[in-house]
Amino acid sequence: IFLKILENPALDMRDKKAAIIDFITAGIETLANSLVFLLYLLSGRPDWQRKINSELPPYAMLCSEDLAGAPSVRAAINEAFRLLPTAPFLARLLDSPMTIGGHKIPPGTFVLAHTAAACRREENFWRAEEYLPERWIKVQEPHAYSLVAPFGRGRRMCPGKRFVELELHLLLAKIMQKWRVEFDGELDIQFDFLLSAKSPVTLRLVEW
């Protein structure tokens, strides 16, 4: 795939580099990191774990109707994406001039939008530093949901978005059907182009 991108004469070299970086980024254990962050955050909300469990059929094969009937699963995932997104910012190289807040930015400028930082500001989310999945069930203003962009935005959105979301929904639902999650202490997080756990994570799965 990389060679085909590089050999394509219709693509500008900047586009080629950006595409290859996107592929590399998407492959650095993003799903695993997202799942670790999700389970860690949920470990602090045993009440929400019970809510998820109550919305799912016990020990049954899950179908799309089961997931659709468990809005607490999606809420838990959305809130994890807000607080601990694996990709905490959007990076773009401007093709044309832009004016933001009175500042004129010339083309060719590298622009970084730190969506993770914006999601933790009280002006954008109610009780912004807390893990509150219920905000995605019953909205409490402010609620700037468009800032939650773990897969990017626009033409450069991650092509694996739907695949990862479906996997997270299924994994969380299957876990919550049978177990509750426990974790002691705080999760040590590092930034290495993406957010990830700094050391091995020990989570306990306890049968209901």
TrEMBL record:
The keyword Heme applies. It holds the Pfam family p450. The chain crosses the membrane at residues 20-42. InterPro entries: CYP11_CYP27_families, Cyt_P450, Cyt_P450_CS, Cyt_P450_E_grp-I, Cyt_P450_sf. GO terms for molecular function: heme binding; iron ion binding; monooxygenase activity; oxidoreductase activity, acting on paired donors, with incorporation or reduction of molecular oxygen. Its cofactor is heme. Heme binds at C158. Keywords: Heme, Iron, Membrane, Metal-binding, Monooxygenase, Oxidoreductase, Transmembrane, Transmembrane helix. Belongs to the cytochrome P450 family. This is Cytochrome P450. The lineage of its organism: Eukaryota, Metazoa, Ecdysozoa, Arthropoda, Hexapoda.
